[in-house]
Amino acid sequence: MADDILIRQATVHDAPVIVHHRRAMFTDMGHTDPAALAAMEASFAPYVARALDDGSYRGWLALTQDGRVIVGGGLIVHEWPSRLVNPAARTF
Fold first, then answer.
1. Distance, CA of 17 to chain centre
2. Which residues pair with 90 in a beta bridge?
3. Cα–Cα distances in Å, from 40 out to 24, 46, 53, 67?
4. Counting Cβ atoms within 10 Å, is residue 51 exposed (0-12), middle (13-18) or buried (19+)?
């Protein structure tokens, strides 16, 4: 079964799929206001495209042999500036 699934890193071209997944996540959590979901998509789409391009968002997609995306996951790389208790800046 695992040989039938390809996992690859998401690219800027995958932004629409990631936006779709994010909307579906909120819908599954019970958020059904179409205007609120549309507003989230409108602001998230340019963010995720830019973040995929600059590496501050990293995502992976699992695809079937025919190229259909079946699941995805991602993370935001976030920088923490230095603080008094920890003078070193950190990237997560």
1. 9
2. 80
3. 12, 11, 20, 27
4. buried
At 17-57, the pLDDT tens digits run: 999 999 999 999 999 999 999 999 999 999 999 999 999 99
Check which CATH number belongs to the domain holding 24 and give it: 3.40.630.30
Give the 3-state secondary structure of the chain. Answer: CHHHCEEEECCHHHHHHHHHHHHHHHHHCCCCCHHHHHHHHHHHHHHHHHHHHHCCEEEEEEECCCCCEEEEEEEECCEECCCCCCCCCEEC
Please state, in angstroms and as integers, the Cα–Cα distance from residue 28 to each residue in 7, 8, 25, 38, 49, following that order.
Answer: 24, 25, 5, 15, 23
pTM: 0.83
- Tell me the residue range of the domain where 75 lies: 2-91
Kindly state the percentage of the chain with pLDDT values over 90. Answer: 80
